[in-house]
Design a protein that fits this description.
A hairpin with a 2-residue loop joins strand 1 (81-82) and strand 2 (85-86). Strands 1-2 form a two-stranded antiparallel ribbon. It is built from seven helices and two strands; from the N terminus they run H-H-H-H-H-E-E-H-H. By secondary structure, it is mainly alpha-helical. Helix 2 packs parallel to helix 6 and helix 3 (34-45) packs antiparallel against helix 6 (95-111).
């Protein structure tokens, strides 16, 4: 599937605080915890618990969320398909959409029971 400017804008304007409980609900149904979700988000964005809560409280959009994030330098290692989109094929102009899909890929892996050390990717030496 191909990302469009409209799709990118729609995701950019979504409120992170409305999506976060959906992520959490999905993970808890699969035996994972809020702490694990926050650990994955922290690895990906650099947000600690306080920063994450502040973004939730201010009802930040995904645009603001990713503008404030310090994306992990190993984020390029996140590959695969999420919601019909192959992450590595999402064009540069839709960076926000790519970051959103990368984060969702990490959350999917967590929900599927993947080990944390595999989810939090590191460059192979």
């Amino acid at each position: 599937m191909k990302v469009t400017a409209e799709k990118n804008e729609k995701v950019a304007n979504m409120i992170f605080a409305t999506i976060y409980p959906l992520y959490l609900n999905r993970l808890e149904k699969n035996g994972r915890t809020k702490e694990e979700l926050n650990q994955v988000i922290k690895w990906f964005t650099g947000f600690d618990q306080d920063a994450l809560q502040a973004l939730i409280d201010e009802k930040a959009t995904f645009r603001t969320f990713f503008e404030k994030a310090k994306i992990n330098p190993n984020a390029h290692l996140i590959k695969g398909v999420v919601c019909g989109y192959r992450i590595e094929e999402i064009e540069e102009e839709f960076e926000l959409y790519r970051q959103c899909r990368r984060m969702e890929k990490l959350i999917d892996e967590l929900a599927k029971g993947r080990k944390m050390e595999k989810i939090l990717r590191e460059e192979k030496k």
